[in-house]
Amino acid sequence: MKKYIFVLTLLFTLSGCSRYLDVNQLGLVEIMVFTKEEDFKEIVSLTYPTKSEEKNIVLSSTGTSLGDTHLKLQNQIEAKLYFDQNQILLLNQKIIEENIDDLISFLFSNFKHPTWLIFLCDDCENILKQEKNHVFYENFVKKEHLRSGAMGITSFPDFASYYLEDTLTAYLPYIQKNKKKVELTSLMAFTPQKKWVEFSMEEAKIFDLLKQKIDTLEEKITVEKENLSLSLHHLSTNFQIKDEDIFIQISGTYQNNDITKKKENQIEKALENTLSKQIKQFLKKEQEEKVDLLNLTHLYYLKEKNLETAKEKASQANFKIQFHFKKEEQ
Prior knowledge:
Elements: H1 2-19, E1 26-36, E2 40-49, E3 54-63, H2 66-74, E4 80-82, E5 88-91, H3 93-110, E6 117-121, H4 124-130, H5 134-148, H6 156-164, E7 170-178, E8 181-190, E9 196-200, H7 201-210, E10 217-223, E11 226-242, E12 245-255, H8 264-289, H9 296-304, H10 307-315, E13 318-327
Parallel strand pairs: 1-4, 1-5, 5-6, 6-7, 12-13
Antiparallel strand pairs: 1-2, 2-3, 7-8, 8-9, 10-11, 11-12
Helix pairs in contact: 7-8, 9-10
């Protein structure tokens, strides 16, 4: 009996060893990039252990398909590329616009849990290669995710699910390298019609406010030719449909230690005018570009129970904006 136990133990040990890869045989991928111009391009930033030290390298390959490109990349290095620690995925607009189905299928079929943070970028390869230390770039993306992660979808599964739902618009943070500095510059919306629409950071802020993704905001207003900065807190937004109108109700508190009692009414009026102007500009752009970032189609669908009617009413909605702000007690 002991002999059989010994043989079984030996077999399990050997079979485990045959599948085991030492960490020194792995290239640990930390940033992954897919782009398309004429051909597909894959770029990875990875930590690669050598005999004396760990070093970071950037590999890139091109190919006629995602699978072809991926295989060519793996063949550039003796170590096996290991993607389970990858946290960041960068894409350019063209690969989403022209090959979104292939991209989603390829990533879900080749990687166990593609839950990476996802950003659009312009000139992705140079942005990645110009930063000597990949940790800088990784930290930048994570910081932007925390600082303004409410702005847009920032995980691959969310992006895929939004794209697969044909009534929703997917939206992604867009990063560029401007004046030798990497910056989050805008919000890019990708419509079910495979059309890109760019929203500025100011417009993206309004989007976050309307979608209740933020509850604090810094806003600048002018009262009697005096410029004031207000801190807005406890923000709440509510949508209601009444007949052909959509009522947008926004409430919150504001803080500024220099405000006198006499100026409170003027300040609240100026604040409402400033926000109202920004919101109307955002809503106008949505309707002109036929983008439904706010998912008003769904709001109408709950009432109409007919998708085509809901789409039509959402595209022609009249908006009435109501505010209720009060000064925070000291």
